Each structure stands twice: as C-alpha cells, then as structure tokens.
Inverse folding.
C-alpha cells in the first residue's frame, strides 16, 4: 500500500477541505472577537455559523446560498 499517495488523496479530498473551511468559519469569529474583549458576541456568531454550516450542501452556488439564507432566517425567527 502506498501510504504517501493515500495521504495526498485524503488531504486534497473534497470532504477534508470542507471540514477545514467549516472549522475556520466556526472558530474564527470567537477568536477574533475575544481579541477585542467581546467573547460573548464571538460565541454567538460561532454558534450561528455552526448551525448554518449544516445546511451548506454540495451543489450549485445559488442553491447553497438560498439554503443558508433560509436556515439563518429560520433561526432568527425561532429566537424571536
């Protein structure tokens, strides 16, 4: 078994790249806002990003955008 080739295939895979993108999108608001002593706001944004990232499905960009906007709207309406 060629472990180097398998490793390269894993690191360049779609799902690995999506996981990295979602991880950065969820953790970056908390880290950035904690730098400015607004950790509560950063955590709220991170939780919202995590909730919306679930609806980010593979497909055309307009369907992805509409799905994420609908999810954000539903979360907002639920919290009212």
């Amino acid at each position: 078994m060629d472990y180097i080739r398998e490793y390269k295939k894993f690191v360049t895979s779609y799902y690995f790249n999506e996981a990295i993108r979602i991880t950065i999108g969820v953790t970056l608001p908390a880290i950035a806002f904690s730098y400015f002593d607004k950790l509560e706001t950063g955590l709220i944004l991170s939780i919202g990003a995590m909730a919306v990232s679930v609806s980010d499905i593979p497909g055309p960009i307009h369907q992805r955008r509409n799905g994420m906007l609908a999810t954000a709207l539903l979360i907002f309406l639920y919290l009212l």
